[in-house]
Amino acid sequence: MKNYKRNKMNNSERSNEVWLTPHFTLREMTASGTAVRRGLKNVPPAVAMENLRALCREVLEPLRRQVGCVRVTSGYRSEALNRAVGGAENSQHRRGEAADVHCSSLEQAKKWFEIIRRETDFDQLLLERHLKNGCCWLHVSYVRQPGRRKNRHKAHMISV
Length: 160
Hints:
By secondary structure, this protein is of the alpha+beta class. The chain has helices at about 10-15, 25-30, 35-40, 45-65, 80-85, 105-120; strands spanning about 20, 25, 70-75, 100-105, 125-130, 135-140, 155.
């Protein structure tokens, strides 16, 4: 299990950060304003941590190589956090298999959707929301566990 570290960070920052891949940290894949406001712990177990690492490596890093900065707004969710945000009981976020990615416009969301659809081995890909301010987000998942079904390549633009 390799932990990546950025050269531009100072030593105290470097020692406190767990890098899942060269551009994605455990902190950003578990960050949640709802968890902070409600005092909820959002710490993934080892299996979910490896699922997050695979999601970042197989889907988010290839996207980043194509488009530059990628902002994850929701990654892993503990059971309590998932309940607090109204997530589905069987949400892939709870297993560390899913992330929601912020897009600043519908055009950007459609472009990123197509990149993920064409170039990654995703499980589920949804252009899930189009907000009044023009922002959208993509929900993307990846399944790595041996013995489970293969990634479905299920892609839908829900509210476009």
